[in-house]
Amino acid sequence: MFRNLFLVLVPDTDPAARVVHADELSHTTIVPVSSVDEAVAVLSSIGPVDLVELYGGLGIDAAAALAKAGSGAAIGFAGDVRPEVASAVLFEDPNADPAVHRWTFGGTTVVAIPSTSDASAVAASLVEAGAKRIELCGGMGPVPAAAVRAAVDVPVTTVLFGFESIPAAAAYRAAFEQAVSVGE
User: How far apart are CA 100 and CA 77, in angstroms?
Assistant: First the structure.
């Protein structure tokens, strides 16, 4: 099972307000944090993870601090997404129902979608509800991001991985593809 950690910047929050979302292949813990230091503390305390993605305004400084913490996980972030605005994060789970699998942390709503083909419609509904930025999981890539950008009139970002994270991200992807092909 793949262990993912999604950290979401939320001012004045309690990291204990975390959510765990699990499917057949992965266990994703979504944790609101109010600072870079808190993000490092969560990573240090949560146990081994394979992948870390940063959202809601956690950018370059957070990625650098987490990389220095040395967990060995692939660390991805959606750029230096300032200013912090109401945002929506989309990630893929083939069994997800976007109406049910959604969580709000401060001004950020995190939504699991069943397929990247659903990303544009879900993103448009989130923008209609007030999202000022759409952030896409690193597993989605530029093709769905371009489709979402064409469907909404707010900035769209996608999580990318720095050079230091490429070996861990590549190993994660290879193991994930292997697990998916075995499960088919």
Answer: 25
Question: Residue 4: which H helix or E strand, with range?
Answer: strand 2-9
Distance CA 151, CA 149 (A): 5
Token pair, residue 155, equals 């900035």
How confident is the model over 158-167, as pLDDT tens digits? Answer: 999 988 899 9
Nearest to 12 by CA among 100, 66, 84, 101: 84
What global pTM score does this model have?
0.92
Instruction: Cite the DSSP H helix spans in 134-165.
Output: 142-151
Exposure string of 56-67, with b = 16+ CB inside 10 Å and e = fewer, is bbbbeebbebbe
pLDDT in tens, 114-146: 999 999 999 999 999 999 999 999 989 899 999
The domain limits of the chain are 2-165
What pairing do the DSSP bridges indicate for beta strands 2-9 and 51-55?
parallel
